[in-house]
Write a structure and sequence with these properties.
The complex is a heterodimer of chains A (248) and B (394).
Chain A (H helix, E strand, L loop, with lengths): L2 E6 L8 H9 L6 H5 L10 E5 L2 E5 L8 H5 L5 E3 L5 E3 L9 H5 L6 E2 L8 E2 L5 H5 L5 H5 L5 E5 H14 L19 E4 L19 H8 L2 H32 L1
Parallel strand pairs in A: 1-9
Antiparallel strand pairs in A: 1-8, 2-3, 4-5, 6-7
Chain B lengths: L5 H28 L1 H4 L10 H13 L2 H11 L9 H22 L8 H4 L6 H28 L2 H31 L17 H27 L6 H28 L11 H20 L2 H4 L2 H31 L7 H24 L15 H9 L7
The chains are: A alpha+beta (248), B mainly alpha (394).
Chain lengths: 248, 394
């Protein structure tokens, strides 16, 4: 059963307990200065953002078919069957294609390190494997962030939408975006108003490049035959001409 | 002989030393302080000019190598043979410099070999890594005869001659794959890349424009080497390439506008944004030389021909920078201007390329007239080439 996180913006009070718990779990420093930063970075893997009277929370979306995992030339990122998309720093060579490609602009880089790594939320993979919920969900005092099976969370989200239709924008963000994500959002206002990208296709992005990569074997086989053929014909023409020229 | 030219060369040498010093200092900063210490890259904008210029333009401008190999050895149009070796040398140096630039850009350059052992066939970057590795090897083997001739190593020469045809076919296929794949890299960012550039046929455009850039670069480099070594420019050959270039540029521009029309984004050309103007610049730099190169008197005038090749090169560079930098800024919600140290590294790498080309061309039989003492060239082929008539005529 695949795990997921449901973030309900209408229940969030912006207390940043999730930020603190996340920093603690990753052994990252967390003080007033870090708390005031609203962007994800190598030292802040989740961030609370304020949009007027609404809050939003940024973290890795843990896509069902992650773009980052598809573009990584060394396979340093992969989607686990449990749900989290995890990163193997030992493989990473630092090409940063995952950062360019991620539709949610999540992966961050240790720009000032001599041996830099990509940093991003891993949905507390170790805790989840041990059957515990994520550090952020555990720390959330209002239940705005909850963690559980994706199917159950989708059902719960639908229940909330139906129960209080007036309080919610009637959609679940993450249900279909780029093929679905393991982080789901509910909001009182349309999602672009809480800083989420709404111009994303419903198809997983990796298909866009796979369509081309699929053609590689064809290019190789057809290309070799074609070029070999052209070479044979042009070369043969010269040989024949030379032989005839010799006879003359 | 070089003594006579000394005054003009001292300026170039001074510039060279200056660029190398700036590059060396930037390299020190890169090693000491990491990418953050020398670049203006950020989490929002992780790829800058080291990818956009050094890699994308570097590989594209080196496309003359595979294009001329195909022309001379696969299509057997022997009269272009005199400019084949310089084109292969340009390509070989180009790829070596691209790999060098990559070492600056990778966060962990010590792991540059990882894609060769840790596979992910779903990654375009993985395919590019393999193609570039293999093709650089092919180029080394294609250039090796020049070195072996100089050293008089006949055994390896015969061996290379034996595998040359399959080697050249492999080279053309590898080039086709990765030249287009550099465009495929950007297929994954439909939400970020501005609609004037994002198209599902990006790989086709990258391939076509790389061939154009390769041809322009071949003309550019024959013009420069003719001046540097006091040789006559192979004008009939350069003019011949220029005619092909004009036709290819027309095809490229036609399909690009057709694509804009098909995707229904032609209206974007009326929007007053930076992207529109830079798109316009790119198109003008390709369209003007296209129109000019269709005229015979332009093609047969060395100065004008050179001017056109420079325009095509700049048009090509504008395109790659538009795709990798300009077109990505709005979608990434940020601005990126390279730091001086990024530019210093790039310029130092270019300067190194020019210098190494010059040294190799001086000491190895890269150009035809250096090859007079060549003992084992196939007699008939040489005669046919010198007559300038394809042997098949009549």
């Amino acid at each position: 059963m695949s795990k997921a996180i449901l973030y309900d913006s209408t229940m969030c009070i912006g207390c940043r307990a999730c930020e603190g718990a996340c920093a603690e779990r990753w052994h990252l420093p967390y003080d007033d200065k870090v708390a005031s930063e609203t962007r994800l970075s190598a030292h802040k893997l989740t961030a609370i953002q304020t949009f007027g009277e609404h809050f939003s929370r940024r973290l890795c979306m843990h896509c069902a078919e992650p773009t980052c995992a598809s573009v990584c030339p060394v396979g340093a990122l992969h989607k686990t069957s449990l749900g989290p998309v995890v990163y193997d720093a030992e493989k990473c060579m630092g090409c940063r294609y995952c950062m360019t490609a991620c539709p949610f602009q999540v992966p961050a880089y240790e720009w000032n390190s001599r041996l830099p790594k990509v940093r991003k939320c891993d949905m507390c993979y170790d805790r989840q494997r041990a059957g515990k919920v994520t550090a952020c969900a555990e720390a959330c005092p209002t239940g705005a962030t909850t963690c559980g099976d994706r199917d159950a969370l989708v059902a719960e989200a639908r229940r909330r939408l139906a129960e209080k239709p007036g309080s919610y924008y009637q959609r679940i963000y993450g249900l279909q975006e780029v093929g679905g994500t393991s982080v789901l959002y509910l909001s009182a206002v349309p999602f672009e108003q809480i800083g989420l990208r709404t111009n994303l296709p419903q198809q997983p992005l990796p298909q866009l490049t796979w369509r081309v990569l699929e053609a590689v074997p064809d290019v190789v086989s057809v290309g070799s035959v074609l070029l070999g053929g052209i070479w044979w014909i042009t070369n043969r023409r010269d040989e024949v001409a030379r032989a005839e020229g010799g006879k003359r | 002989m070089s003594g006579r030219k000394l005054p003009s060369f001292t300026i170039w040498r001074a510039i060279f030393v200056l660029l190398m010093a700036a590059g060396a200092y930037s390299t020190y900063l890169r090693v000491r302080y990491g990418l953050g210490g020398v670049t203006n890259l950020s989490d929002q904008f992780p790829w800058g000019i080291w990818i956009g210029f050094d890699i994308l333009c570097g590989v594209g401008l080196a496309a003359g190598g595979f294009t001329l190999v195909a022309v001379v050895h696969i299509f057997n149009i022997e009269r272009y043979k005199p400019i084949l070796r310089p084109a292969i040398l340009t390509a070989f140096l180009g790829y070596v410099l691209v790999v060098l630039a990559l070492l600056f850009d990778l966060g962990r350059p010590d792991r540059v070999w990882h894609p060769l052992v840790m596979w992910n066939p779903h990654s375009v970057m993985f395919e590019v890594a393999w193609c570039v590795t293999l093709y650089t090897t092919v180029l080394a083997l294609e250039f090796a005869p020049t070195v072996f001739e100089k050293l008089g190593w006949h055994k390896p020469l015969d061996w290379l001659k034996f595998i040359s045809v399959p080697l050249m076919i492999v080279g053309v296929i590898l080039s086709t794959l990765h030249q287009s794949s550099l465009g495929s890299l950007y297929l994954i960012v439909p939400h970020k890349l501005y609609a004037l550039w994002y198209t599902p046929v990006l790989p086709v455009f990258f391939y076509l424009s790389a061939i154009c850039a390769g041809l322009a670069m071949t003309i550019f480099e024959s013009w420069h080497s003719s001046r540097a070594f006091g040789r006559a420019l192979e004008l009939p050959l350069a003019a011949g390439l220029a005619r092909v270039l004009a036709v290819l540029l027309m095809t490229l521009l036609f399909v690009r506008f057709l694509d804009l029309e098909q995707r229904g984004v032609l209206g974007l050309l009326g929007v007053n944004r930076t992207e529109t103007w830079l798109f316009g610049l790119e198109i003008v730099l390709l369209a003007v030389p296209m129109v000019l190169l269709f005229k015979r008197r332009v093609r047969w005038n060395p100065a004008k021909l050179y001017g056109c090749s420079v325009m095509v090169i700049f048009g090509f560079i504008a395109n790659r920078l538009n795709v990798s930098v300009t077109g990505m800024e709005a979608g990434s919600g940020t601005h990126y201007v390279p730091r001086w140290t990024e530019i210093a590294v790039t310029l130092a790498i270019i300067a190194l390329g020019f210098a190494v080309f010059r040294v190799i061309a001086q000491y190895f039989p890269v150009f035809e007239e250096h090859r007079e003492d060549q003992a084992h060239a196939p007699g008939e082929a040489r005669e046919a080439a010198e007559e300038g008539i394809p042997a098949g005529v009549g």
